[in-house]
Design goal:
Mean pLDDT: 94
CATH class: Alpha Beta
Number of domains: 1
CATH superfamily: Aldolase class I
Helix content: 25-40%
CATH architecture: Alpha-Beta Barrel
Structural class: alpha/beta
């Protein structure tokens, strides 16, 4: 079996309030830095994983994120981060890029009104403008060209009721330096039912947004294919009700190999998720 990638959601807090968000954990405990490192070491020691993705909430709210990234790298893990991009500055990028193999930026629309309708904005309505997004991509590219980093850029888009009729291809092409585009159908979660799309709406979006040169993949379902550690170090899987999570066990108290034995990963679908 090929080695796996795990998603460590460091916190639930976010500066955005996207209405489809599935990063809700019904608990606001936080691990210490030492505990987070213990979880990362457990992941690396299992020899099942070769990559870790830091997520949230919004992971760039964690002031010591570069330290966690460096630590994961020191254990032989490839590191990626998924962020809404709003808090990325040159200083933050300089601290993160040496340890990052991929920067994922969540972009659900290039239309300012649609961004705010989705909730991809701060409480005061501030957004990551298309111009700032372009500058972030250009800065990552320049860092790579100078030899300071070797970081790919991925765009993640959730297809929901507010953007399912849009065409994002032109906007993503305009960014120039994107190596991958992943589109995910809005998943059922407690409280987000008004953001769900029908089968025909999802397929319509997929057909409208075909652009093979963007190395794109569209996912209809994440069930039993998304390996996720919550902010307090627990491995989660989809709950029986289809709208919440079930705790598999704690990565602070049990080896990751034993936890994964109870996860029931859908290996074939999982491999499609991370192909390319």
């Amino acid at each position: 079996m090929n080695k796996l990638k795990i998603n460590f959601h460091l916190l639930e807090e976010c500066n955005y309030h996207c209405k489809f968000c599935f990063a809700k954990y019904d608990d606001h405990r936080k691990l210490t830095l030492a505990e987070q490192k213990a979880v990362i070491k457990n992941i690396a020691d299992s020899s099942m994983f070769d990559a870790i993705n830091f997520a949230g909430g919004e992971p760039t709210l964690v002031r010591y994120l570069p330290e966690l990234m460096k630590y994961a790298c020191s254990l032989g893990l490839k590191v990626s981060v998924i962020t809404n991009g709003y808090l990325l500055t040159r200083e933050k990028l300089d601290a993160m890029l040496p340890f990052m193999s991929m920067l994922g930026i969540s972009v659900h629309s290039f239309d300012d009104v649609s961004k705010r309708t989705i909730g991809s904005c701060t409480k005061s309505g501030d957004i990551l403008t298309n111009e700032r997004l372009q500058k972030i991509c250009e800065y990552v590219y320049a860092s790579n060209e100078s030899g300071k980093s070797d970081c790919k850029i991925k765009i993640n888009s959730v297809i929901c009721k507010s953007n399912c009729n849009e065409n994002l291809v032109a906007g993503i092409r305009h960014l120039k330096y994107v190596q991958r585009w992943k589109g995910l159908r809005c998943q059922v979660f407690e409280g987000n039912q008004d953001m769900l799309v029908t089968d025909s709406e999802f397929q319509g979006f997929v057909q409208r947004n075909q652009a093979s040169e963007l190395n794109q993949v569209f996912e209809n379902d994440m069930k039993d294919t998304y390996i996720m550690i919550n902010p307090y170090g627990e491995l989660l899987k989809d709950g029986a009700d289809g709208k919440s999570y079930e705790v598999v066990g704690s990565a602070l108290r049990e080896p990751m190999g034993q936890l994964m034995d109870r996860f029931n990963l859908k290996q074939d679908i999982y491999e499609l998720r991370y192909a390319g």
